[in-house]
Amino acid sequence: MKSRFTIFTILLLSGVFAFPQVQSAKQYSLFEHFTNSSCAPCAEQNPIFQQNILAHNVGNIHHISYHTWWPGNDDPFYQFNVSENTARTNYYGVNAVPTMILRGNHWTGGPAAVTQTLINNDQKYSSPIRVQVSETSSGANHNVSVDVQTLGTAPSGSYVLMVALVEKDKTYSTPPGTNGEKYFPNIFRSYLTGASGNPITFAAQGSSITSNFTYQMDTAWDSTKIYVVAFVQNTSTKEVINSGSTLDPNWEHFNTSSGIFKQSAANAVNTFTSNIEMLTGSENIVVSFTADQPSGWTSTCTVNGFGITDSLVFNPSPGSSNPVIVNVTPSATAGIGTYTVSVYSLNNPQYSPQSVTFYVMSGVSDLIVTNLEAFGDGSGSGTFNWTSEYEAGLTYAGSSTFASVSHLVFLEAENGNMLQGVKNIYYNVGWSFPALTDEKVAAFKSFMDAGGNLLICGQDIGWETWDPNGYGTADTRDFYTNYLQAHYFNDGTSANSVLAAQSGDSIFGSMTASSIDPVYANSQNDYMYPDVIGADAGGSAVPIFHYNNNPSKIAGIRADNGTYKVVYLGIGIEMMSDVAFRNEFMKRTYDWFNGITTGIDFDKDMQAMVVNVFPNPAHETMHLNFGPMDSNSWLEIHDMTGRLIWSGTCKSNTQSFDISVANWKSGLYELTLKGNKTAPVSKLISIQ
Question: 515 CB contacts (<8 Å, ≥6 apart)?
Fold first, then answer.
C-alpha cells in the first residue's frame, strides 16, 4: 500500500550561504503550434491544450502559434504575415493541423496529446546554455537584447538564433474563421531575425554573446500584449536546445542529477539533486516536497542544508545557487516511489511552480507500461488510462511485486539500464498513437534481448505499423515481424465482436470466450478496429485467440524464441467485457512468463485424446470423430457449472457423431467419453 504526503513548514532563510555556481540552466520546453481558424479539429483540441497545459505552466514553458493557409486561406493571422508563417510551416514539413512540435525534434503530436508528464520528461535535464531576453522602449522604437550564456560544455554543430515577436492573446467577438474559435493565445507576428534566423557561435564556457534588435509596433497588434521569444536551434537536427522570453521569471529550478530514475534495493540510500537559481532581484521562494511511495519507504529533502518537514520559504541572494538534495530509502516492500520538488514565488504567484520529479524502483518483477500518446480518434479526449485493469489482473495472478509507469518513465529507466530484476513488461497501449516508435522499440528490444518477456495489447498496433497512413518505420516494422513475430492482415471492424480462445493452444486454449466492448465510444460501430493478425511464418509464434467463430481470423499470438516470450493481442484487455475472462488471461500470461505453466501436460492430453472435435468453436453443428469403438460408450457434455447439457450412447464401431449446438449459449463446455476407450475431458466452445 502506498503512502502519500506533502511536506509544508514555514521557515525564512536569507541567502547567506555560499555554494558553487551550477554550470547549467533550466531547460524550457518550446512548443511550436500549427493551427488555423477554420480547422475543425483545431477547435476541438486547442482549448484542451489551453486549459490543461498553458494555464498550469505560466513561466514554465514557451508557446508560439503559427497559422497555416489551409483549410481556410482567410485566417487573419496567416494573412498578416504570409511569408514567415509559410516558411516555418514548410521548415517542419507540417501537412496537417493542428500539429504541435516540441523543441524542434523532441516530440510531434496533437495539442490535446500534450501532457504534464511530457513536459516534466522534457525538462528532466538541464541545458548547457541559458537564453535571457530583455526589452526597453525609446520613443516608437522597442529595443530587444538577447543574451545567450554558455554555462556548460558548448554543444557542437551549426546553430541559429531565432527571435520572434508574439502577441500574448487575442479574443474576437465573432469567430474570424469557420471553426468557432474566438480565443487565440501566443500568436506569431514576426521574426526579428528573419525566418532563417541568425547564425550564432557560442561564447566560451562562463561567458555570453549578446544580440540586439529594434522593432516598432504595428497598428494591428495590441501593444500591451506583444512580447519576445528567442530560441537557439540546430540547423541540421532542428533540435531547440533552449529558449527564453521577456515574460520569464527571474529564478529557475532544474534537475542536476545524472538521472531521474534509480534501481535500488531494500535499505539502500538513493540521492538526487536539483538547483534553485536566483538570476536577478530578490523574492520569497517556496519549496515543497511530495512523496508517493510504498509502505515502509522513507525519504528526506533539504534545501541549502536545511531539512524540509512540510515546506520551506527562503529569500535567496541575487545570483545564488541553492542546492536541493533528496534521499530515498526503500523498505522490503516492492514498488516504485515518486518524489517531486516544486518551487514557486510568493511575490509573483502568477508563475506556475517549477517541478522536478525523481523515481526509485525496488523489488519489482512485473512492470506495467502505459502509453501516454494521444487517444485514437483524434477528438482531443486525451489518453485513456487502463492501468487498473492490468493491476487487477496481476493481483488475481498472485503477483505482489508489480508497479506501473508511463512509457516516458520506462524509456528513462531502460535507457539508463535501470530495469534489473524486471522480468516481464505489460505494455498498455489501448487505442493510442503511436504505440511503437523507433525509441520505444529500441528500448523493448534491449529489454527482450536481455531475457525480458513482453505482453503488448492494443487495437491498432498492426494498422499503425503497416498501413501507408500509419506511423510505421523500418525499425518498428522489424520489431513487429522479428520480435512480436507477427503478421498484420487488416484493420478490423466492429464485426470482430467476440474474442475466443484457440482450443488447441496449450496455455490459453481452455479459456472460454468474451464479447468485445466498444470502450472508446457509446456505439458498437464507433471506434472498433480489432486488428486481424497472424503468426509470422519465420518465427516460433502460434495463434492463441481468434474472432467470433472463425479460427482463421486470428486475434492474438504468443511466441517463445528461447530468450524471451511475447504475447500480442489485437485488442486492449480493457475491451474484454468479461472481467473474469480478462483476469484469467492476465493470470495465464503471468504464469507462462514465469514458467509456472508450460502446457506440456495439456499437450500430452490432447495427443492422447480419442475424440477429435471440429469445428471448435462451433456455431450450428459440431462434428465428433471417435475412431473405431470396440463396444458401446457413453458421451456426456456439461457446461462449466457442471450442469448436464447433452448425453447419449455411442454404439460400437461408431466413428463419428454430429451434435446440433444452434440453441446452446455461447461459452465453454466439457465433453466426456466413458467406456473401454475413456478419453480425457475435451473442451468445446459454442459461439452464437
Answer: 497, 498, 499, 577, 578
Reduce the DSSP state of residue 355 to 3 states and report it.
Answer: strand
Q: Check: CB of residue 549 under 8 Å from CB of residue 662.
A: no
pLDDT in tens, 329-339: 999 999 999 99
pLDDT of residue 644: 76
Is the pLDDT score of 10 beyond 60? no
Bridging pattern class, strands 270-278 and 208-216: unpaired
Identity of the residue numbered 311: S
CA distance 568 to 516: 16
- Alpha-carbon dihedral sign for residues 553, 556, 560, 563: positive
- Which residue matches cell numbers 547549467? 24
Q: Look at residue 229 in the predicted model and tell me its pLDDT.
A: 98
pTM of the prediction? 0.81
Q: Determine contact, residues 166/186, Cβ cutoff 8 Å.
A: yes
CA 205 to centroid of chain Cα atoms:
36
Tell me the C-alpha distance between 289 and 311, whole Å: 7
Q: Mind listing the domains of the chain with CATH numbers?
A: 2-17+252-361 (2.60.40.10), 29-247 (2.60.40.10), 366-601 (3.40.50.880), 609-686 (2.60.40.3080)
| 513 vs 499: CA distance, rounded Å | 6
**Residue 373 identity:** E
pLDDT of 611: 64
Please give the C-alpha separations between residue 191 and each of 28, 135, 166, in angstroms, as whole numbers.
20, 15, 9
Whether the CB-CB separation of 101 and 32 falls below 8 Å is answered with yes
In a 3-state reduction of DSSP, which class is residue 334?
Answer: coil
Cα–Cα distance between 466 and 455 in angstroms, integer?
20
Q: What count of residues does the chain have?
A: 688
CA gap 674, 680 in Å, rounded: 9
